[in-house]
């Protein structure tokens, strides 16, 4: 009996020795709002939140919705981004590794609590697994919650309030080694103070190589302009809400977080093909571009733009089999980029370009009226 006990102890010590447990605790969350652009905004905020609380962030997989699939698909974080650059900013671990090596020691099944601001859906708890993608996300790791914890009135703004101390005081790591949130512990759109964290998101060689291969072997030699078009039916409907939501989605990226640079317009949200062609021509001329690369969720306007740019001897291109992440990597390398101010997909490309000191613009912004006012003011 003593021999069996000794073997068990030695085995436990050996296993634990190979795993570094963070005494400050961990943060987990479901990136359950929107598609990639929204999830990326939330990720930057969650990274800042984890650093402020000095807890290791478990990098969740990206939630994707694929045609024909009844439920969301979870793609490992490291499929798209490198881990090493993130570690230069703060401690992170991919969720798959956390669940395999750390969770059995600090977060056993009988102690798994879901954290939410208030009761969600039907009932009096967080209902962390209710609906898609919530259920499929946690099921990916065979996670079930035994209880709920309402953390209100605490919030995620660790830059302007004494929130980090309040969180750690209310939920010390000794008592709550894992804070598992039903949604991202971050605001949308990304908080102004967290935008610069984009520089720690570095594409994997797989994405980078595909982007470079396209630029070198498909685009003609010379400068190129990258553009992002949102023109699907869902986007048309979203733009109808501008009148009542002047800071819709990622609008603060060009209008400011207090609309100090203007109010969102239909020309910005859903520009006409003619307006797009006009703005592209100006960019092509200014940057002496030889080609235009188009990323879109629906209509790339290839025939229309090809005809519009024919006299300028500029060709128009898109990926033969568009992949959003490769699109973004290509847009990040364009000599000039024009995107949709309201779109979080555009926001990702804009932040990456800002981090690398590259110029960008937006459809219909600034408006002609705003430009004329600025010019008149400068003349005076």
From TrEMBL:
<dbReference type="Pfam" id="PF10250">
    <property type="entry name" value="O-FucT"/>
</dbReference>
<dbReference type="InterPro" id="IPR039922">
    <property type="entry name" value="POFUT1"/>
</dbReference>
<protein>
    <recommendedName>
        <fullName>GDP-fucose protein O-fucosyltransferase 1</fullName>
        <ecNumber>2.4.1.221</ecNumber>
    </recommendedName>
</protein>
<keyword id="KW-0256">Endoplasmic reticulum</keyword>
<dbReference type="GO" id="GO:0046922">
    <property type="term" value="F:peptide-O-fucosyltransferase activity"/>
</dbReference>
<dbReference type="GO" id="GO:0006004">
    <property type="term" value="P:fucose metabolic process"/>
</dbReference>
<keyword id="KW-0732">Signal</keyword>
<comment type="similarity">
    <text>Belongs to the glycosyltransferase 65 family.</text>
</comment>
<keyword id="KW-1015">Disulfide bond</keyword>
<feature type="signal peptide">
    <location>
        <begin position="1"/>
        <end position="17"/>
    </location>
</feature>
<keyword id="KW-0808">Transferase</keyword>
<keyword id="KW-0325">Glycoprotein</keyword>
<keyword id="KW-0294">Fucose metabolism</keyword>
<dbReference type="InterPro" id="IPR019378">
    <property type="entry name" value="GDP-Fuc_O-FucTrfase"/>
</dbReference>
<comment type="pathway">
    <text>Protein modification; protein glycosylation.</text>
</comment>
<dbReference type="GO" id="GO:0005783">
    <property type="term" value="C:endoplasmic reticulum"/>
</dbReference>
<keyword id="KW-0119">Carbohydrate metabolism</keyword>
<keyword id="KW-0914">Notch signaling pathway</keyword>
<keyword id="KW-0328">Glycosyltransferase</keyword>
<dbReference type="GO" id="GO:0007219">
    <property type="term" value="P:Notch signaling pathway"/>
</dbReference>
